[in-house]
UniProtKB/TrEMBL annotation:
This is DUF4190 domain-containing protein. It comes from Dictyobacter alpinus. It comes from the Bacteria. Keywords: Membrane, Transmembrane, Transmembrane helix. The chain crosses the membrane at residues 21-40, 60-83. The lineage of its organism: Bacteria, Bacillati, Chloroflexota, Ktedonobacteria, Ktedonobacterales.
Length: 84
């Protein structure tokens, strides 16, 4: 097999997503930073190889654990502000 014909497999980001989820429990900011770094790396791998295993896990983790708490606190503040 020629060296140019052989395709290299991209890195699997599922383990990184699992470790990032665990890191979110230890601290919000470190988990968010690691999540964004891994997500950017996965997007770069997707652009290079056409797919990146675990990219969806990292994206959902950013939505649920990264943006979710901020949106919930904002909603709770809005409700409490208009409740009284």
């Amino acid at each position: 097999m020629n060296e140019l014909e052989r395709k290299e497999m991209p890195r699997d980001y599922t383990r990184a997503a699992t470790l990032t989820l665990i890191l979110y429990f230890f601290g919000y900011i470190p988990g968010l930073v690691v999540n964004i770094i891994n997500l950017l790396s996965a997007v770069s791998a997707k652009n290079s190889y056409g797919y990146a295993p675990g990219l969806g896990c990292l994206a959902w983790l950013l939505v649920i654990c990264g943006i979710g708490p901020v949106a919930l606190f904002g909603l709770a503040y809005f409700i409490l502000l208009h409740l009284y």
